[in-house]
Amino acid sequence: MIPDKKTKRILNISGCAFAAAFIIFANGVFGPFSLRIFNLCGIYIILALSLNLINGFTGLFSLGHAGFMAIGAYVSALLTMSPAQKELNFFMAPIVPFLARVELPFIPALIIAGSVAALAGFLIGTPVLRLRDDYLAIATLGFSEIIRVVLTNLQSVTNGALGLKGLPKFSSTLMIWASAAITIVFMVALVRSAFGRSCRAVRDNEIAAQAMGIPVARVKIISFTISSFIAGAGGALLGHMMTTIDPKMFTFSLTYNILLIVVLGGIGSITGSVIAAVAVTIAMEALRFLDGPLNFIFFRTQGLPGLRMVVFSALLLVVVIYRQQGLMGKHEFSWDSIFNSALPRLRGLFSARKKQGAA
Description:
Elements: H1 5-29, H2 32-58, H3 65-80, H4 83-89, H5 97-100, H6 106-128, H7 133-153, H8 155-158, E1 164-165, H9 173-192, H10 194-204, H11 206-211, H12 216-242, E2 244-245, H13 252-265, H14 270-286, E3 294-295, E4 300-301, H15 307-322, H16 335-358
């Protein structure tokens, strides 16, 4: 049984209403810690989709996302902090005069932060995207580290290694999840557009795509720039949720966490990125006890910081070896698949139980 367009529309509206109701419920009922993890899920959804646009839909192996997140976080922080708060932060060296009195609302600052990250992505991507595979990954990783080092040494702009503290907590639950919803809708529209089809063509075979008249270099640069914008906006949301930022937050380990989500969810799947972002974020906190002292019957430790990441690394190895397509592969959620596969299986299961009960 395949639902018609009207039924699908009703199901889509019902699903969106349920998701909105759950977000409002979580905002009012969850405790501070649970709400923080819930909001972190929304931010990781944004970041995973931005990386998946490059790695999954365009076929570019990039490892420089932490750098674009850092740019977005710092730009947004400097634009939204009050002059008094800036004066408290910059006690080692005074802040540059043109930033000392600037104070903007969060949404314009968020757009500007994403735009500056997109500009950095364009300037970096124009020469670097000529490389391929491992060389591209190494080059983007190198640029990410360069950005972090520059932020550490720009004392009069970024406050150096001390970072920025006392950021306004603009990243509320509704703001984060509204941004995540906008990102999901944008990604769905982008993937279904002519540009999205061009990205997939470049991913599958660059030579064939170029022979069909697709401007491969332009598609790569635009995709990289859009991804950098989304990453910068995600970094800004993360900074205003944590209310403090410093260069050590934006190391390769942050990019690794996002890459882990993309690989586990499925490279080239929006649905997989969303599901994996929620699952991995919750699992990272649920397994935090592994970093502390463990006392099993035959195994005791005094505390091994980073042990939970060993578990995730082992899981990543298993996925890469035995299920390279991840959870969803390149497939997306659809009502047709549920009505064609899940419902018949449930009916068969219930009918089998009824027969067993009758026997």
